[in-house]
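1st attempt posting a full record on here, be nice pls
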Amino acid sequence: MGEFARRTGVSPRLLRYYEQQGLIRPSRRPSGYREYSEGDVATVRGIRMLLAAGLNTATISELLPCMVNDGQTLSPACSGMLPDLNRERERIDEAVASLLAARDALDTIIDATLSAGVDDLEACDAAGAAKIDFS
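the predicted structure (as tokens):
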């Protein structure tokens, strides 16, 4: 496992988690030790790519059967995975929109603070002591 972890750049603990989730299935030697193939290396790289794209391991486990391993990376093997990929893209779009709205709200507060010329720390402490209720 240590050698495989080095080759993939993924910790042994995370590799065991991928195995537990059914994302990788190494063969076992008679001694019980795991034996990984070059295909497993590409699969782990593909898993990392899909995780970086924002997919969770449950979704990845659904998508992996629809992917082929060319020895270097995972590639789509069927269009049947498009609904799942589109759903994940929509989820990410919603998360991005929510984060942008939060940033805009924060920018509004920052701009209002700057335009009000509030730089008196004692005034901030007094305002905080007043326990402003935002609900």
